[in-house]
Each structure stands twice: as structure tokens, then as C-alpha cells.
Amino acid sequence: MRIAMLGWEFPPFISGGLGVHCFELTKALAAKGHFIDFFMPVSGKTLVSPHKNICLIETSESALRPYLVFNKKGKLATYGEGLIRAVEVYNSQAAKMVAAEHKQNPYDVIHCHDWLTAPGGAHARHLILRPLVQTFHSCEFDRTSTPWDAIVRIERQAAADADLIIAVSNRMRKQLKTHLGADEKKMRVVYNGVDADKYRASAVDAPYSKPALSVQTDGKHVVLFLGRLTEQKGPVQFLHAAKKVLEKRQDVLFFIAGTGELMPLLINLSMELGLGEHVRFLGYLSDADQKRIYRAADVYIMPSTSEPFGITALEALASGTPIIVSKTSGVSEVVKSALRVDFWDIHGMAQKIISVLQFAPLRKSMAEGAPADLKHLTWEQVANHTYGVYDEAVRSFKQNK
Amino acid sequence: MKVCFYFQVHQPMRLAPFSIFAPEGGEQASLFERYFDHSLNKQILQKVANKCYLPTNSLLLDALEKNPDLHLAFSITGVFLEQARMYMPEVVDSFAALAKTGRVEFLSETYYHSLSSLFTEQTEFEEQVNLHKAAIAPFCAKPTVFRNTESMFSNDIAHWAERLGYVGIMTEGLDQMLGWRSPTYTYKVRGSDKIRALLRHYKLSDDIGYRFSQKSWNEWPLTAEKYANWLAATPGDCVNLFMDYETFGEHHWEDTGIFSFLKQLFPEISKHRHLEYATPSQVAQQVGPRGEVDAPSVISWADNERDTSAWLGNDMQRAAFGELTSLEKPLKELGDADLLRTWRHLQNSDHLYYCCTKSLSDQDVHNYFSPYESPFDSFINYMNVIQDLKAQVKRREKR
After folding, report:
1. Which residues, in sequence order, are bridge partners of residue B197?
2. A322, B122, B242, B268: which has the fewest C-beta neighbours closer than 10 Å?
3. Which DSSP state fits B79?
């Protein structure tokens, strides 16, 4: 099958789960013998295709800023200035280029990711008369507590235009129905995956060894938060839970990895709560550092108030670290070897953190359950299920013609 | 051939969600009140009583009147009776009415539905068996057949039961133990002389207990006539049909036809002249043994493995069980009745069962019965309660 995929991020030009998903999905599809032309904004970096069946096509002359940018004060902003304009430029270019490529070598299906590339997909669908599959990795209501009307409008239109919609969880599917009025009959759930080998302790490491970190842990236990510092990720709840944990035991450190708009607030809050030296802000971590921190942690917690999926939880799980995830996350629907919490239940969260630190048999039993979870959550499975959706879209498109 | 029906009656005493941050509630607060979710337990007992215990007891009482040759047996845990007395005494009365017919036998087991038979010393095990005898005394003066928690059985357990004067002991008709032999005979047990092993016919028992309402089963729908014919065609001296009493009305709801099946079953069985009803003690005393069974390690009727792995299969379960058993000595030295009773209620095997992490088909059964979201949540709650009890014991020791 030939797929025109409209994406926004691709390594090394990446700022979130969307880029990881596109990279791993295209690789897994290519490995199955499919051909993918990946249309993306000009990155300003040298791009290397990970597979001969994947062709990376940069669409615009004008260089775009990445999805996440810093504003003039050095503060991280969720959206770059002029983002909407940049998206418009990308989409109109992408649609034309898809049509031009299609003339040379026809596509079977168009696949878009999130609102960023949706208008181009819809336009291309009109130009080349091929079915459109739209994946929602998140929607505006998950990303911010003050949704942008312009983006919500694009999302609503994207849900209406697509022949089939892929939601990354049941939770996402319900959100799309509620917030965007997406048609239940058009939606399919395909959960994300993880390349577990990437995170497993490598052969050179001694078993159960903790990797050296530049931050001193002084033999204390490490509880890890890793994600954008926005309200939806629940870092505030994380700090409140930290305070509760410290009431019961002092030998615990709380690491916050990531940056975001809430950073100043969180620093203030940790001082107000008197957490002092027990909380460490690590900033944005490189891929290599992320892998080390997952393994160095004694427990990973994802207290998101709203999380369409939550790939980081799978990465931590693959690293052999016990995970605690909020019930309001997609990943909590599929992972059995996790502890689940309500994001508002600070006592429950703290009690679970303490229990994981205190009871070795619990950690061991959770670790024993992880392989069974990870077996089902591979990118190969994601590619299989996604292909299933393409196939369905192509068949029903032909029937309806 | 003897047809022996025995029903197991039990409801666990479920734990309350325990918070390590909660205030301790003062010196006088009873641990028993704090640790268990009494309102949930009451609610479940009442629900199951209305769906199962009361209607089935009344159906059986009626059947005993109409079928003068009918004999039945029950094993009722102390934990069940304790809850029934607290929340719904009419359930106890309805069992008493069955006992009064003189044709219903009651079996002996541990009061707390516990794994105390696996303790290194047998003191606690015997104490719990004696507590149970006292609890069922209104129904039965002296039980003569023993059934261990979840049919856990071994040569040692059988030998212990023989020493205490039991004539029979119930367990699973396990293929691995029987080999080519059939569960439709009685057997001696290796290392014992007088006691007889009564083996559950798991196929015929599970036809009612599990498969009755399964529409995918090729024998569905199961009629009383068909089932009685199967019994009649079964070769052997006795057929032991052991099942959870909750089979009737709870595992299979009324709309599956389970009650009319049960009602019609007795007259259908009576049509076959070579079939006669017997209680477990009658089977043990009247059916001569055809060989010897050997169970060097403990077997049970649970899961596919039919061993103790449903309760002690993973590290969490073994850790919790270990912590609990290590409390026996200090706790008994304290002589605090509330503490002792609470500790014993914590021994209820169900608490461990909820911590089971077996995957796939078995896990589904565990999930069905568990009040927890996951075995990990169950362990956290259970272990935190045990830790609290341990701290309470320590504190009282200091005084």
C-alpha cells in the first residue's frame, strides 16, 4: 500500500509523543512492505530516512519554528507566535505536493496526525480522491485549560472530513465525541506502543544496577515525574503527593523532568510546601538521559488530569520501573501491571508511592507482569492495527464511489 | 451407586480501604471495626441471601419433604455464620430448618476459611477447627467428615484428620493424583489407615457449577432428565457432587433456569433405581476403599493448577502470609481477644486470593470475585493492614 502521511514532527526534529509515534509507525509499516511518503515542514536539519520505503518530503520554503518554542523572556510557550499561519502555509503546500506526487505514483490512502496537518489532508483528499484517515493523539481540550477557538474549529472540521478516525485510547474516542462531535461509527481505537528493547537494561549493565546520574541521590529513593509542565500533566498533584510521602518517610527524592509554563509556579509551590531539597527540577532531558532517569527511578508516576495515551508510562515500564498512572489516561486502559490512581486523590497517590517503596514483593510482582503488557504494546502491533484501518477506509471508499 | 451432594457456603469478610494517613481513632477503637468494610459485607450478604441462600434453602427444604430418600450435606464457614448472624439472622434460621430434617449433614472445617493447615505447627489449625465446631453446634452435634479450606488436601492433612477421629475427608478428584483411577470410589490415604478420601467428580460437579448457563457449551441447555441420565450411566460406587452453594441464584441467576433444574433433579434421580442419596459420612462408612491415594504435597480445587498457587503463588502472597503467620506467637502471648479475632479474620484465604496475578483464564475468575481493581491494589491494602496490626501488637507489648 502507498501511504501519503502528513506529519509535523520527525526525529531529530521532535518535541512530543506525536513525533515518536510517526517515526515508529512509519518504520513498522515500511518493514511490512508498505511505502510511505512523509510530508513535513522544513526542519532546518539533515533528515535521514530510517527505511528505504520511507521518503521524507519537506514541504515549505519558509522555515518553521518548532511546535514548542521559547518566547523572548526565555519562558517556554506552548505555541510559537504565528503558529496558525505556519500551519496554514504547511497545509496548503502539503496538499499540492501530495497531488503532484500522486500523479507520478498514485497513493492508496492519506493519513494525517492531529489538527496541525488535518486541513492539508482534507484538501489532498479532494484533489486525489483517496480516503483520509485522521489520527488524534490529543485534542485541544487535553493540551490546555484555555482551548484556542481557532484550533478547536480545525479539529472539529478534521473529525468531520476524515473517512475514518484513529483515537489513541477509548478515553480519546469519548473526548472526540463529546468535544468535537466526532461520529462514533467512524472511530477506531489504536493504542500506542513502545520499543521495549530501547529501554531495557543493556547487556553491559550489571543486572539491577542503577545508572550513574549527574544528580546526587545519596542512596535515597527516587520518585519520577517526566513530562511537559502543564496543568494537564498533573505536576501540582505530584508535589502535593510528595509532601504526604515525606510525612511518613524522609529518604525519598522527587524528580521533575521536563519544562513548561508551570515551572515558576511549581518552584514556588515546592518552597511553600517546604519540600526543599527533596524536590529536584531536572529540566528537559535528552533521549539518553531520559533512558537513564527511567531506570534510576524507583517508581514512575504519571498523575495527568487528562492524558489521551501517555507513552512515557510505557517507556518507564519497559525500563523495569514500577508505574503509577492516573485513571484519566489512555495507558491505564491497557496496562495491567500498573497501579492506577485518581489524579485528585493525593492520599491514595502517596500511599501507593510509599507502598511501592516499602514492599519489595509488590515491586517484583509488578515487574513480573510487565512483559505480558509490553508484548501487546509494540509498534508492530500499532502498524498492524493502523493498516487494518487503512484497509477498511480503502474498501468502504471504493464501495461508496 | 451413592449420589453425594455437598454445598460449600462462604462469604469473605472484605477489608475496608485502609489509609496509612488516617488518624488511629483512639486507644479504644476496635481493630475489627476498623479493618473490615462492614457496610459492604452486609450489603453483599443481603444481596446473595436474597438471590441464593434463602430461595435455595426453601427449595431444598421442600425437596426434602417431597423426596423422603433425599440426603444432602453443607459446609458453612464460621465467617459466613458470623456475618449472617449479624446482618440477616433469618439465613441462619433457614439452615437450622434444614438441619432439623435430620437428613442434612454438616461438615467440619476451619472457622476462618483459612490456610492455617499450612502453618508449621497445627495448634492454630486445631483451634480454628474447634471454633468452627462450636459455631455449627446448633446444626450438628459432632461433625465426622472434614473438608479443609478450598479442599486443600495432603497425606499429612488427612493423617491429622484421622488422628482427630474423622471418618472421611473431602478433596478434589485430581487426575494427577488418581492416574487411571476414577473418583467414583473411596480411597485410603497413604500414611493413614481408617480415614477415607471422598473425591469430587469435577466434571459432573462443574457441569452444574460452571457450565450450566454457558450457551456455548454443546450440552446447553442442561435438563434435569439429561443430568440424571449421566449420573445413572456413571460407573462406580459413589459420585461426589461438590460445589459452591452460590451456584444457585448467584453464579447462575434465576433466569438461567437453575432453580427449576434443581427442583426437577431430585425426582429425576429417584427414577433410576440403582441411584441412592448419601451424605459424606455415609459414603465414608458404607463404601469400602478400592485403593490408596497419595498426596505428598498439598492439592486443592482451585484454578487449573489445583494446588496452593492461587493463594501462595507469587511473592506478594507469600510475603503477606509470612508476615501474618509470624504474628501468631506474639499475638497469643498478649491474650487480647479483639486482636486475636482480627488476626484470624485476616487469615481468610480470600484476602490472598485477591492478590493472585495469574494471567488469562484464571485471572478472569480472580477478577470476578475480587473487590479490588488489581492484585497490586489488593496487596497494598492487605499488607498495610497487616503492618498496622503488627505495629499494634508491638505497641501493646511495650505496655
Report:
1. B169, B187
2. B122
3. H
CATH of A196-376, one of 3.40.1350.10, 3.60.10.10, 3.20.20.70, 3.40.50.2000: 3.40.50.2000
Tens-digit pLDDT profile for residues B202-244: 999 999 999 999 999 999 999 999 999 999 999 999 999 999 9
* Distance of residue A338 Cα from the nearest chain B Cα, in angstroms: 8
Task: Report chain B's mean pLDDT, rounded to a whole number.
Answer: 94
Yes or no, beta carbons of A336 and B373 under 8 Å apart: no
| Residue whose C-alpha cell reads 501519503 in the numeric block | A4
Whether A365 and B377 lie within 8 Å, measured CB to CB: no
Asked if the Cβ–Cβ distance from B376 to A351 is below 8 Å, we say: no
Q: Quick one: what percent of chain B has pLDDT higher than 70? A: 96
SS3 for B7?
strand
Q: Would you say residue B166 has pLDDT above 70?
A: yes
Helix (H, G, I), strand (E, B) or coil at B124: helix
A210-226: pLDDT as tens digits: 555 666 788 899 999 99
Specify the amino acid at residue B10. Answer: H
Is the pLDDT score of B299 beyond 80? yes
CB contact under 8 A, A354 and B357: no
Task: Tell me the per-residue pLDDT of A228-247, one tens digit each, with 9 for 90 and over.
Answer: 999 999 999 999 999 999 99
pLDDT at B366 over 80: no
Interface test with A, best of B361, B379, B380, B386 (most A CBs within 10 A): B380
User: A200 and A320 in contact (C-beta within 8 Å)?
Assistant: yes
Q: Which residues contact A100 (CB under 8 A, 6 or more apart)?
A: none
Residue A74 confidence class, pLDDT cut points 50, 70, 90: very low
> Mind listing the pLDDT tens digit for each residue in A339-354?
999 999 999 999 999 9
What value does the mean pLDDT of chain A take? Answer: 89
Question: E-strand spans in A43-178?
Answer: 54-58, 69-70, 76-77, 109-113, 132-136, 164-167
Which amino acid appears at position B321 of this protein? Answer: F
Residues 6+ apart with CB under 8 A from A320: A200, A201, A295, A367, A370
- pLDDT of B360 over the 70 cut: no
Looking at the predicted structure, is the pLDDT value of residue A149 above 80? yes
Reduced to 3 states, what is the DSSP secondary structure of residue B162? helix
**Facing residue for A369 by CB, picked from B319, B357, B384:** B357
Per CB-CB distance under 8 Å, the chain B contacts of A374 are none
Query: Which residues of B are annotated as catalytic?
Result: 150
Bridge partner list, B252: B248
Angle of helix B258-270 relative to helix B224-233, nearest 10 degrees?
A: 40
Instruction: Please check whether the two domains, A2-193+379-400 and A196-376, share a CATH topology.
Output: yes
3-state secondary structure of B208: helix
Nearest to B384 among A339, A350, A355 (CB): A355
Domain at A2-193+379-400: CATH architecture: 3-Layer(aba) Sandwich (3.40)
What is the complex's ipTM, to 2 decimals? 0.90
User: Residue ranges of the domains in chain A?
Assistant: 2-193+379-400, 196-376
CA atoms within 13 A on the CB side of B388: 23
Enumerate chain A positions whose Cβ falls within 8 A of a Cβ in B: 244, 247-248, 336-337, 339-340, 347, 350-352, 354-355, 359-362, 364-366, 368-369, 372
- What's the pLDDT at A237? 98
Q: Which residues of chain B are at the A interface, by a Cβ-Cβ cutoff of 8 Å?
A: 19-21, 314-316, 318-319, 357, 359, 373-377, 379-380, 383-384
User: CB–CB of B380 and A244 under 8 A?
Assistant: no
Q: Which cell goes with B69? A: 430418600
